[in-house]
Amino acid sequence: MKIGILQTGIAADALITKHGDYPDNFKTFLQNRGFEFEVYEVINNIFPDGINDCDGWLVTGSRHGAYEKHDWIPPLEKFICDLYEADIPLIGVCFGHQIIAQALGGIVEKFKGGWTVGRQVYESDNGNKIKLNAYHQDQVISAPKCATKISGNENCKNAIITYGQKAFTMQPHPEFSNTYIRELIDARGIGLIDDKILENARNNLMEDLDAKEIANQFEAFYKRV
């Protein structure tokens, strides 16, 4: 099964040297699951020829805001809408989560409570909890009418969303290990994010995560099993 990765951001140089760029993180996260990958640098206006070029799609994270005026954002939103209408499986993470929601009628804004960094616990209405790393200030403030909220918390109400069998999106980064978050804080957090937020994130970096569970869910979603 071929997954098209729509790259909407570029990792910090120090992280690329050790971990690769954003698409590489997802290739590692979903390795040994029967997928092959094709990367499209939509941030550089490199788009697929059509929605059927791959069997499923994934939109990465980005430093940019979904609401910002970049020339690659309108065609990306159209591509998302076309995928949705064609019922081709689509996953979005962080910025990907936000741009899919925005394209389908939701609202993305900077969270008034500020940045969220490091290990977060998200809870569903039935009490199930999921623990994942996050790194964001923007979030989906209002989800589209076609969306169903799966999990959230007080700092991110719409953290994990599904759109039936069409799309599966989340604000946190299941592909970011604790080591990656530590290095991301050093590369891009210091001087930008409040020191107390970064200190709290560092203090929780030895805690367990549910990334493997999410990788299993991504695989099942793509394969529709």
List the helices and strands and how they pair.
Layout: E1 2-6, H1 13-19, H2 22-29, E2 36-40, E3 56-59, H3 73-86, E4 90-93, H4 95-103, E5 107-110, E6 116-123, E7 129-136, E8 138-142, E9 148-153, E10 156-163, E11 167-170, H5 178-189, H6 195-203, H7 211-223
Parallel strand pairs: 1-2, 1-3, 3-4, 4-11
Antiparallel strand pairs: 5-8, 6-7, 9-10, 10-11
Helix pairs in contact: 1-5, 3-4
What does this structure look like?
The structure is a single chain. The protein is an alpha/beta fold and 225 residues long. The protein is 32% helix and 27% strand. It contains seven helices and eleven strands. The strands form three sheets. Strands 2-1-3-4-11-10-9 form a seven-stranded mixed beta sheet, with helices on both faces. Helix 1 (13-19) runs antiparallel to helix 5 and helix 3 packs across helix 4 (95-103).
Give the H and E element order.
Answer: EHHEEHEHEEEEEEEHHH
* Helix percentage range: 25-40%
Low-pLDDT residue intervals, each spanning 5 or more residues: none
Largest beta-sheet details: 7 strands, mixed
Strand order across the biggest sheet?
2-1-3-4-11-10-9
Overall, the morphology is globular
Please sum up the structure shown:
With 225 residues, this protein is of the alpha/beta class. It has helices at 13-19, 22-29, 73-86, 95-103, 178-189, 195-203, 211-223, and strands at 2-6, 36-40, 56-59, 90-93, 107-110, 116-123, 129-136, 138-142, 148-153, 156-163, 167-170.
